[in-house]
Amino acid sequence: MRRNGAELEEAAVLLARFVPGPGRVGRIVLHPRLTIVPLRRDDFDGLGASFTTDVPVLVARAAEVRAVADVDSRKASLDDAIAQLDDARAHHAAATAAVTEADARLREARAALDRVAEQRARADDAVAAARERLATPAGASDAGALRAQIDVVLRSVAEAATERRKAVGDAQDALDAARREFALAQRRLAVAIDRGEPGTDTRAPSAARAAEVVDRLRACRAALDDEDVATPTALLRRVAQSSPAPVVVLVEPFDPAPDGIVEALAAAASTTKPIVYVTDDERVLDAARALDPDAGALRTPLVTETAVPALARTDGNLL
């Protein structure tokens, strides 16, 4: 018996559960390849919202299948995501450089202020010496000139200190602004990464992570140029491959179903992963009854008011 995905390797029987409506529980044993499930259309929404197995499943309805089939829209969406990431990366790079530059300016401004403080210490020594000289008879004769020199030195040092303190304040303001812009760039980068690969951990976005996502998106975009979704088999295979979930559930994705849909489903399931197809289309159900048992099977769900124990019959249905 063929298995799809590591999570199915040990599974002898995969039992699916769903809630088709209030107070009702549905269960079904899945075929290892293709399971066709007859269900009333009124129960589609309940199944689609609650279908679970012991392994993750992808539930796709008509909108999701149409999205896969619309290659042009997928190309446009990828182009937009790549452009958004490129813009966010450029913003992030500029913001990173701005923080680095502003931090360097602040360090330079603080160093210049420290030098002024050293100059002030030397000036204080010079002023003290000049004042001592003023107290001497020789200095008294030059009192006017000495006082003028003292005033010039003190004023010059004070002006330099004021200028350097202002330069430090301006540099600190610039660094604070650069850091705010960097935080904005970080958030923008996180949003762009999440759009490119939804569900990605973006708590600590980085340029390297963004570059990895862009590379993967560009690879996907290039692959779309050669993608074939023109036939039902190719489309269904692509839907199955669009998610890492080991089981895909298709809830009446076509209305009406195209000719040969059962054969297309069997072919897709044989090369990808187990597929569950839910429908009320009698044409599809009639074709499913003629399926090769190795390729797939029609399985009628057991719907009860509670999840009572049930046994599986030889045809795979529950009783």
Please tell me about this protein's structure.
Helices cover 58% and strands 11% of the residues. With 319 residues, it is of the alpha/beta class. Helix 3 (71-134) runs antiparallel to helix 5 (143-196), helix 5 (143-196) runs parallel beside helix 6 and helix 7 (232-241) packs parallel to helix 8 (261-271). Residues 1-12 have low confidence and may be disordered. The strands form two sheets. Strands 4-5-6-3-7 form a five-stranded parallel beta sheet, with helices on both faces. A three-stranded antiparallel beta sheet has the order 1-2-8. It is rod-shaped.
Strand content: 5-15%
Principal-axes geometry comes out as: rod-shaped
C-alpha Rg (nearest Å): 37 Å
Strand order of the largest sheet: 4-5-6-3-7
SSE run: EEEHEHHHHHHEHEHEE
Number of domains: 2
- Give average pLDDT, whole number: 85
- N-to-C CA distance: 23 Å
